[in-house]
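Tutorial, part two.
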Amino acid sequence: MILRKLKNIAIIALSSFAVIPAFGQDLLANQAPIDRKMNAVDAAMLKQLVDYEEYDSPADELYEDWDNTYAHRQTALPDSFRIDLRDFYMPTPSRVITSNFGSRWGRQHKGLDIKVYIGDTIRAAFSGKVRVVKNEGARKGYGKYIVIRHPNGLETIYGHLSKQLVAENQEVRAGDPIALGGNTGRSTGSHLHFETRLCGVALNPAIMFDFVNQDIVDDFYMFHRDSYEHDGRMATLLRGANGKNGYDPAMVNSPNMGKSRDMASAGSTRYHKVRKGETLSAIARKHGTSVNAICRLNRISKNVRLRPGQILKYN
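Running the prediction step on this input gives:
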């Protein structure tokens, strides 16, 4: 009898020891998905924190202040600055440029005019923070306009709007609706006046945006203080309004445009606009150069995937 009891106790004890690890394993198994969820929450919180820091002081490297009172004010330009264009969204699906950047009617036109209709949705070109939402009044300047500062260093301006959908100091994502197209301010018809500025200085949006192909020209634009004006003239020749070669016939007699064409044909740097299906080898053969030379000039690899509309230096 005693031996039977001892045997039963031993069996119960052994069973208990066997159950404890299994119970512990069950606890670990149940904890695993909780840990994964907490890691996901931590990652999301970290991303939100990074985003907050990014938008709380956008483009801190270039801009010392945050002021909602002015549309643009020129500050010191860097000698060079790489502008990241990858986080982009075309501000409008319209492919029609009605007026180029540059000299127009005896004054400088600091942006591109894109054909839109009253009520068409206008979207943020990049993620960023809204700095200005104002109305310059009837027949004056931008009319109703918005200025957004972006972490990549750019500020974009959207003018002649019929309605603004955002507020000053609001954070927006690339592609967010920010306004409706209109005909306010100094405007002769409904359109979007679109500007890209660096430190308050207007850069030709065609340097970076290809409205006809609804894409950016490249993933990055390397700004150089001594060559951005020439880059702007070349961009008008390549991606401007009207004309077989992409330039506006009304600007043919412009001294600046003539100078730009001379520089394009005789300058030390020449450019090629990539067409659908073209390869680096085909481009190199066309211009009598080598693939290695093109890659070196553009800081790209031989295996890079070319996009239609992309601009490459070949000389």
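Confidence is low (pLDDT under 50) at residues 52-58, 243-268. In part three we will examine how such features are distributed along the chain.
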